[in-house]
Design brief:
The protein is an alpha+beta fold. Helix content is 60%, strand content 15%. It has one domain.
């Protein structure tokens, strides 16, 4: 048999959130994630059996800022 690609998150979350999540909720989630990431210089991840401190490159901050600005323009156009 050939492998089948399955997106579990879609099957699990879609019925639970349908009609309950609005654009305002999505934007609040995206903006809070962006602003928290822009404030942080590093983040911790549990990988390979231990906690690893990962530093965010300056270019990643710049790209995130530009993406947030572009998202804001789309929100204003809507």
């Amino acid at each position: 048999h050939e492998p089948i690609e399955v997106h579990v998150h879609e099957g699990y979350w879609a019925p639970l959130t349908e009609g309950r999540v609005h654009l305002r909720d999505v934007l609040r989630f995206l903006y809070s994630g962006a602003f928290n990431s822009l404030r942080a210089r590093s983040f911790s991840r549990y990988m390979f059996g231990r906690t690893v401190e990962c530093k965010m490159p300056v270019l990643s901050h710049l790209r995130l800022l530009v993406t947030t600005i572009i998202l804001s323009f789309f929100v204003l156009l809507n």
